[in-house]
Amino acid sequence: MRLVLLGPPGAGKGTQSVLLAASLDVPHISTGDLFRGHVERGTALGEQVRAIMTTGGLVPTALTVAVVEERLSHGDAADGFLLDGFPRSTVQAEALDRILASRAQELSAAVLLDLPDDEVVRRIAGRRVCGRDPSHTFHQDTAPPLRAGECDYCGGALHRRTDDEPATVLRRQELYRSETAPLVDYYLRAGLLRRVDALGPVAEVGNRVQRALAASRR
Ligand code: AP5
Q1: 128 lies in a domain?
Q2: 10 Cβ closer than 6 Å to some ligand 1 atom
Q3: Known catalytic residue at 41
Q4: Can 103 be counted among the known catalytic residues?
Q5: How far does residue 75's CA lie from ligand 1's centre (Å)?
Q6: What angle in degrees, to the nearest 10, is found between the helix axes of 31-41 and 61-72?
Q7: Is position 167 within any domain?
Q8: pLDDT tens digits, residue range 74-106?
Q9: How far apart are CA 206 and CA 218, in angstroms?
């Protein structure tokens, strides 16, 4: 399956992507994680995007599309993928459509994780991520690590993301509303939108996602 996961910052896209990608046996491709990896490694791209990410802005589309196109060219994405955090605007969605069309492929579905603003704020406030692998995500109340401050999977130190400060979260939410929310109509018109209530325990939301995708198996 070729999927995109949409939803506001903190909706649980990364959390659900890890589970869904494993169950579908497709790579989980998170543009946020790719960019954070570059920042961690101090690459030229990382230096370009560091300040943008820290202040909650959007990385320029040309750069983002190039990173995604390169990642989709890897062999593990030939038969399917799960995109998390991309596309984030109509221009990016059109670019993805072009990339797929050039490979005679199309999207299977776009899953929207729906969550009220107050729960978004609660999830982001308690989020802690692993310094070694940012896809290892915890929450101090709802998904605490077994040992305080330590990643369950690899023992890395947990920390708060630099873009999880309240003022930065507000900016990310505004950008979500102005740039990303229009994708709901974009994928609705294409007949690809699968809306999922993201309120509730992780496993329950995961079951809803699976049910929403049951009619999209291809
Ligand atoms: P990115 O990393 O994509 O950030 P985001 O979209 O804002 O999403 P988050 O990672 O904040 O949240 P999430 O929905 O994955 O939630 P999570 O599963 O962690 O992007 C970061 C930055 O990179 C952007 O601001 C931008 O600068 C740049 N960027 C990335 N893509 C770009 C693009 N396409 N174009 C331009 N720039 C781009 O869950 C949150 C918390 O809630 C966790 O603590 C988790 O444990 C907890 N939780 C999850 N599910 C549940 C549940 N069901 N119940 C209770 N708690 C839960």
Answers
A1: no
A2: yes
A3: no
A4: no
A5: 26
A6: 100
A7: no
A8: 999 999 999 999 999 999 999 999 999 999 999
A9: 19
Name the residue type at position 119. Answer: E
**Domain count across the chain:** 1
Q: Which of 88, 128, 194, 208 is catalytic?
A: 88
pLDDT in tens, 182-210: 999 999 999 999 999 999 999 999 999 99
Phi, psi for 22 (deg, rounded to 5): -65, -40
User: Domain containing 77 — which CATH number?
Assistant: 3.40.50.300
Range list of H helices, the chain: 13-24, 31-41, 44-54, 61-72, 90-101, 117-126, 166-175, 182-189, 202-213
pLDDT in tens, 25-65: 999 999 999 999 899 899 999 999 999 999 999 999 999 99
Mutate to test the pocket of ligand 1, among 15, 65, 141 (most ligand atoms within 8 A of CB): 15
